[in-house]
């Protein structure tokens, strides 16, 4: 027995296959379009800027300003996020992402932009990086402090800002040695009549500082002499 297969039957099949491929191409195009739009929305969210009236604020105040000045809602768990944590914002106007970086610096909290939401969660990668940094061996910082004339500043005080118990003073040549310091410590350098300075070690083992006179402070000093 012979099976008679009509050419018209093949053309119908080919036509249906072409329509299916066309639908798949269109669907794939719209999928890519949605993906790029989502990426663009996330990029705009991170580039959104806000203004802060105070240089020292809490996380709660930052969240309030973000929701007030942008279209984004900040989502978080009270058990994970300490909204009373204070941080310093050196800039009055900056990106939302920059302020979030400042707010959660040296913490295990991360953030993610998802459409109109900013989600705050514990970040495993950030926590791992903090643990890695804490395991780095301490270093010894050596340095020299002079005034604007190049003369050594004798008796200047150098302390680790977040650990005031770690400190020392300069010798007769303006030199100092500060052992067992983390490689990213922030040093506070002070001397009577001089402007205080903050210097980050930033992986360095040698730090040289030039201190400037504090003219306003010197003008307020009153010298009283006694005689017989």
Descriptive report:
It is a single chain. Helices cover about 35% and strands about 30% of the residues. It has helices spanning about 5-45, 60-70, 95-105, 125-135, 215-220; strands spanning about 50, 55-60, 75, 85-90, 95, 110-115, 115-120, 140-145, 155-160, 165-170, 175-180, 185-190, 195-200, 205-210. The chain has a 4-stranded antiparallel sheet, with no helix packed on it. Strands 3-7-6 form a 3-stranded mixed sheet.
Quickly describe the structure.
Helices cover 34% and strands 30% of the residues. It is α+β, with helices and mostly antiparallel strands.
Basic shape: elongated
Helix content: 25-40%
Distance between the termini: 143 Å
The number of E-state strands comes to 14
Low-confidence stretches: 38-45
For the largest beta-sheet, the strand count, sense and barrel status come to:
4 strands, antiparallel
Mean pLDDT: 77
- Strand arrangement, largest sheet? 10-9-12-13
- The H-and-E topology, N to C, reads as HEEHEEEHEEHEEEEEEEH
Radius of gyration: 31 Å
* Total of DSSP H or I helical runs spanning 4+ residues: 5
Structural class: alpha+beta
Strand coverage percent: 25-35%
């Amino acid at each position: 027995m012979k099976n008679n297969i009509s050419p018209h039957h093949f053309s119908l099949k080919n036509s249906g296959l072409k329509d299916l491929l066309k639908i798949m191409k269109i669907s794939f195009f719209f999928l890519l379009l949605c993906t790029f739009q989502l990426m663009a929305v996330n990029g705009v969210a991170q580039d959104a800027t806000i203004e802060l009236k105070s240089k020292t604020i809490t996380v709660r105040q930052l969240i309030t300003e973000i929701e007030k000045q942008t279209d984004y809602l900040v989502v978080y768990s009270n058990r994970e996020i300490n909204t009373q944590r204070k941080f310093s914002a050196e800039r009055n106007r900056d990106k939302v992402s920059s302020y979030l970086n400042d707010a959660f610096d040296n913490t295990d909290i991360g953030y993610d932009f998802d459409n109109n939401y900013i989600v705050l969660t514990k970040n495993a990668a950030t926590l791992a990086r903090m643990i890695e940094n804490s395991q780095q061996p301490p270093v010894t910082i050596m340095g020299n402090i002079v005034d604007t004339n190049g003369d050594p500043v004798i008796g200047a005080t150098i302390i680790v800002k977040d650990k005031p118990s770690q400190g020392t003073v300069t010798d007769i040549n303006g030199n100092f040695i500060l052992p067992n310091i983390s490689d990213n410590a922030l040093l506070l350098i002070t001397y009577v009549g001089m402007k205080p300075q903050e210097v980050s070690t930033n992986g360095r083992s040698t730090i040289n500082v030039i201190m400037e006179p504090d003219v306003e402070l010197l003008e307020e000093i009153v010298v009283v002499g006694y005689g017989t």
